[in-house]
Amino acid sequence: MVVSNPPRAAAPPTAVMPERKRLTLKDLAAEIDVHYSTISRVMNPATRHLVAEDVAARILEVAEARGFRPNRIAAGLRTQRSGLVGVVLPDISNPVFPPILAGIESVLAQQGYVPIVVNAGTDKSRQRFVIDQMIGRQVEGLVLATAERDDPILAYCLKQHIPVVTVNRGDDTGRVSCVVSDNLLAMRQTVDHLVGLGHRRIGHIAGPATLSTGFLRREGFLQAVKRHRLRRGEWQVMEAASYSREAGRLACEQLFAAFPQVTAIAAGNDLVAMGCYDYLREHGMRCPEDVSVVGHNDMPFADALTPPLTTVRIAVHEMGEEAARLLLRKIDKPASDAVTVQLTPQLIVRGSTAAPRAAE
Amino acid sequence: MVVSNPPRAAAPPTAVMPERKRLTLKDLAAEIDVHYSTISRVMNPATRHLVAEDVAARILEVAEARGFRPNRIAAGLRTQRSGLVGVVLPDISNPVFPPILAGIESVLAQQGYVPIVVNAGTDKSRQRFVIDQMIGRQVEGLVLATAERDDPILAYCLKQHIPVVTVNRGDDTGRVSCVVSDNLLAMRQTVDHLVGLGHRRIGHIAGPATLSTGFLRREGFLQAVKRHRLRRGEWQVMEAASYSREAGRLACEQLFAAFPQVTAIAAGNDLVAMGCYDYLREHGMRCPEDVSVVGHNDMPFADALTPPLTTVRIAVHEMGEEAARLLLRKIDKPASDAVTVQLTPQLIVRGSTAAPRAAE
DNA sequence: CTGAAAGCGCTTACAG
DNA sequence: CTGAAAGCGCTTACAG
């Protein structure tokens, strides 16, 4: 690491630049000849009509010229509305989250809200700490992407009477609104596709059962396998310790140990699918010739993997938008019921799935 | 999209739950028998010693039991410190930014700051709007990942006397601190590698020259090519309209039109490199057998592309951390000079580069 | 060691 | 239509 201090640019003419304080209503009122409450009324479009047009025009002009921006924080203190919403992510480096975040932000912005985003990891006490911070900052509501099926954090938020919405992952108890993708349907699509190709030995590498996505996708897999009348010994489920590439590789190894005849794998998500790729490659098996793999999420660049990954596309951006809408509604009407919004996923068939070898 | 309203859970026993207002110092003071200013002193570790130990203990106990969390916003109004820092991103879905953001957040958190993140796109007037919003929210400083080489937005921030730091991209004028990767060195590493493999016809697909990364990587390419005494006709530069896969594909097409003999491409970044992959594949050329490709950034999953991408790894997380540190310093000492922190990149050789065909 | 008061920058009834 | 006042929830000199 190199640090370079460029030579000081020509110093300001006369010693210290006065640390220009931000303008306030009163400063402006002193310049124009009006009471500062009048300026306040003009700055807010909703109350502007209370002021005579010519006065308003003059005020606006000066405000613009002087670059006056009312202090939203002071306003928020007075009105009891911070305009802040907290977004709690388990891991922003997981490529599912950025588009969700973008969706959230886009609808919040329309309503004059701004998100405070934190990476809270998976540790519950850290999550709680982070949420306390946000509450201290007067967030009006919370979007949690960290929810578990029976999440103490959710109970905590509920106790605080703070509006909460869960995104991507749901909560089993139905206490809070959530927007999720239809995981049962997704797994049905996945298994239908695999069976349609001729596969009869199918493995599922599930995500953690503590997460609704892990639990529900496993359920969906089970239901689908039953629908196709696969028998015991024709399918197998292995749980990965987390939604990560490495955990996927490990679980894939265990799957092959328990079920060596497997010809197709429905992975809990795309990262897990990548772990499967890693395992297969290490063990000289080709995908899809020897083993087919299906992912979940259709993360960015899933199409650019080798082979391009067949996966389930979930409506990430829309998911974020919808979560923000739900939260805004809840903030507006705290008494409104919890709602579950379920988005329809779509199987994207690419190069990682093919018919099993003729040998079958 | 399916929306389901679960049947109302057993309604709360007696009609409306009183919208529990958040506790304040005064509420607490009423419960205990002290003045609220005393509680204030106890809640802040720095002033706690001013209060008698037994009183402090009792206050802490009640505060904890009642889940009291002081209103940071009100405190900020009083102390003129919001504890907020604005982070302006061009596009959070570009995989370089999440790790940078994570780095920023991690050091901010240590100091009790919290980031407000916005996706501001590339449009300058939108960026300005967004920054005005943030200033209105009293951010104490700004981290810009959107900087251009001579950026009016930067000038604007400077005029407002708001502490600013630029990350990933620098600004030519040296007016603000920035943390960047050493782009000249990176391109030297890239060209050395390619020449070392035996390539003598090398193309560079540059990022936009308005961005420091685009400009400097092009400079670095030029310098490197000169060092190796490649002659005119042995190298070529083509500029992509943006750092995107599609723009990369297009520029690659133009490169081949202008310079069909090219055997190796140094791409402006990994997305552009992916665009090159797309073009090559469409036109029946194999990478690296027919054409070698080098990326820049080592974004997540660059190793999982086909072929695994040889690319320059930049220290993204560290970049974010350092930017946050620089900003915090500037907030602390507004008079401190602008500093450029340059992180050392590292060429990661993978499967997308090889010796040119023997034919040479 | 603790209390009482002023004030951060706003909004918004309340008068006039 | 405009002004004067109170108050949002804190912090922090200033007394005592």
UniProtKB/TrEMBL annotation, chains A, B:
PROSITE patterns (alphabetical): HTH_LACI_2 (PS50932)
Location of the HTH lacI-type domain: 23-79
GO molecular function: DNA-binding transcription factor activity; transcription cis-regulatory region binding
A Pfam family per the record: Peripla_BP_3
Family matches, as Gene3D superfamilies: 3.40.50.2300, lambda repressor-like DNA-binding domains
The UniProt record lists the keyword Electron transport: no
InterPro entries membership: HTH_LacI, LacI/GalR-like_sensor, Lambda_DNA-bd_dom_sf, Peripla_BP_I
PANTHER family assigned: LACI-RELATED TRANSCRIPTIONAL REPRESSOR, TRANSCRIPTIONAL REGULATORY PROTEIN
Name of the protein this chain belongs to: Transcriptional regulator, LacI-family
The organism of origin for this protein: Cupriavidus necator (strain ATCC 17699 / DSM 428 / KCTC 22496 / NCIMB 10442 / H16 / Stanier 337) (Ralstonia eutropha)
Organismal lineage: Bacteria, Pseudomonadati, Pseudomonadota, Betaproteobacteria, Burkholderiales
